[in-house]
Amino acid sequence: MKKILLSVLFAGSVFANIQVDTTYAALGEITKKVGGDSVDVVVLASSKYDPHFIIPKPSLLAKLRNADLLVINGGGLEIGWLPPLIKSANNANIQAGAKGFLDISHFLTLMDKPTFVSRGFGDIHAEGNPHYITDPHLVPTIAKVIAKKLSMIDEANADSYAANLDKFLKEWDVYLKTLDTKMATCKDKKVVQYHELFNYFLRAYGFKNYGDLEPLPGISPSSKHTLEIIDTIEKNGIKTILQDVYHEKKTAEFIAAKTGAKVALIPHDLGAVQSADTLEEFYNTIATRLCR
Question: 18 — phi, psi (to 5°)?
């Protein structure tokens, strides 16, 4: 009986899946693509809320305690909520610098990196704009990095991760060509946005952002600044205001009423709006709402 029990326990330990915690939904979906049946993915933050300020609930601690790998966005995006949770989780695998900790931003070149950092410039990110996930062309790099890390911590399934990655990259290349073709038909490429969430997508497809409804990052719109944005829209013939799901919407609606510009509600992550639950749906939704 003891031999049978030990055999069962041993088999369970050999074939147990790797638990991967990701801070945000898009990273979780990419991890599922390359991890396949060998990983169980847990997404920590809800895409319905501001990714800068996730409430550090006790339930997140339980998830972090069991993680073999933690994949974070980085670039300072999680700085307001994640560090205390990692510390309290007391999981050696996922401490910064440990084998089971992965900061994706370290493998990308972030745009909008400030030359000078001061609170007088608002809630800026010293490492650059962390909202890189809105650029679909960065997905292959992210997938490669995650696949390599999975292979390092789970060598037994390295061949499986490599095969999953190869399949995903081929499929994504086909998808990107279709999306790029669609975006090439966009005629109006002038926008303003509430917060600089979509700079990477705008850059990828040649859009120009003429201003932000926030006078400074993290600072609510003032009456004076709102009037300045209205003037900018009218002078430059801007027809689109990009609005995210978690900031107040009254300012964008007021500006739209005054200028005739349309408010486009754009997701910042998978699941932020209806019918944007997969990677393809996420980018298709941004494209459709931006180019309508």
Answer: -80, 130
Amino acid in position 79 = I
Distances (CA, A) of 195 to 45, 132, 206, 248, 278: 19, 14, 18, 11, 23
- d(C-alpha 153, C-alpha 99), whole Å: 7
Q: 3-state class of 174 per DSSP?
A: helix
pLDDT band, residue 10 (cuts 50/70/90): very low
What dihedral angle (degrees, nearest 10) is formed by the CA atoms of 160, 162, 168, 174?
A: -140
Among 21, 29, 23, 86, which residue's Cα sits nearest to residue 51?
A: 23
Domains of the chain: 14-176 (3.40.50.1980), 186-291 (3.40.50.1980)
Residue 13: pLDDT over 50:
no
CA angle 124, 125, 127 (to 5 degrees): 150
Task: State the CB neighbour count (10 A cutoff) for residue 145.
Answer: 19
Helix axes 279-291, 158-183, angle to 10 degrees: 10
pTM listed for this prediction? 0.91
**Higher pLDDT residue, 121 or 46?**
46
List the Cα angle 134/140/145 in 5-degree steps. 105
Q: 44: alpha, beta or left, given left = phi > 0 and alpha = psi -120 to 50?
A: alpha
E-strand spans in 189-246?
190-193, 208-212, 240-243
Cα 200 to Cα 285: distance, rounded to the nearest angstrom: 15
- Express each pLDDT in 187-242 by its tens digit: 889 999 999 999 999 999 999 999 999 999 889 999 999 999 999 999 999 999 99
User: What DSSP line would sit under 81-105, residue for residue?
Assistant: THHHHHHHHT-GGGSTTSTTEEEGG
Closest by CA position to 39, among listed 215, 120, 157, 206: 157
Q: Please tell me the distance from the alpha carbon of residue 228 to that of residue 43, in angstroms, as a whole number.
A: 39
